[in-house]
Design goal:
- The chain has 230 residues and is α/β, with parallel strands linked by helices.
- The protein has nine helices and eleven strands.
- The strands form three sheets. A six-stranded mixed β-sheet has the order 2-1-3-7-10-11, sandwiched between helices. Strands 4-5-6 form a three-stranded antiparallel β-sheet.
- Helix 2 (39-51) runs parallel beside helix 6.
């Protein structure tokens, strides 16, 4: 918390945030045949990108190389995709992205799978906020002396002071509603990340939609990191 707060102070003076918004990547279906299409994630990524006046990376455009390059020069990173946990080795847990078609033999930076250990090896000097809009990105397993470990920890290690992540599997449609409201509060209302997430969660809690009112739809997402004014 102390280290992330110090990093947040260094990243406060940003006049205009550049955002990378990724949604519903065309992942390798042969490797993950049981995973469904995330149509709501496309809507989510498009509307989030529009708030930051940027172009989203959707479907086949959400290639790992493009996502990696975009993260290096963005203040805000929003990733709406599937997250697959490796229960035996959390460092091998991965966010699914689109493959690079031009390489016959995929390398780690082009295989369409962004693994936790790869994020640990990154440095993200500009990024102040990462939103992991996927299932169970905040916690996978608790280790004695280490606490809860998830891919969110990887982004903290890469120099990101704030990470929004989930504590359990989430519904894609409800998550899209929550995330669009969250970024609306953050960009249009000028709320801090913590205020914006709280306000979006309260809006779903008081929604006329019974599905969105249930805690399962909104309570999973938490902020990991330090204190920040953005």
């Amino acid at each position: 918390f102390v280290a992330c707060t110090a990093i947040a102070l260094q990243k406060e003076a940003t006049a205009r945030e550049k955002a990378l918004s990724v949604g519903n990547p065309s992942f390798a279906r042969k490797l993950f045949p049981e995973l469904p299409e995330l149509a709501s994630a496309s809507r989510e990524a498009e509307q989030v990108a529009a708030l930051y006046a940027s172009a989203p990376l959707l479907r086949e455009k959400a290639r790992e190389g493009s996502v990696r390059a975009g993260m290096m020069k963005s203040e805000v990173v929003h990733l709406a995709s599937h997250y697959v946990i490796d229960e035996q080795s959390p460092l091998l847990s991965r966010l699914l992205l689109a493959e690079e078609p031009q390489r016959p033999v995929p390398q780690h930076d082009s295989d369409g799978i962004l693994q936790a250990f790869e994020v640990y090896g990154m440095k993200l000097p500009q990024t102040r906020l990462v939103v992991l809009s996927a299932c169970q990105t905040g916690i996978e397993r608790a280790y004695q002396g280490e606490g809860a470990i998830g891919i969110a920890r990887s982004f903290i290690s890469a120099g990101v002071p704030l990470v929004v992540a989930s504590l359990w599997p989430v519904d894609s449609a409800s998550t899209a509603d929550l995330m669009i409201k969250f970024h609306n509060y953050r960009k249009l209302e000028g709320f801090t990340t913590a205020q914006a997430l709280r306000s979006a969660q309260l809006e779903l809690l008081n929604s006329s939609d019974q599905r969105n009112r249930h805690p399962y739809a909104w309570a999973s997402f938490v902020i990991i990191g330090g204190y920040a004014n953005f």
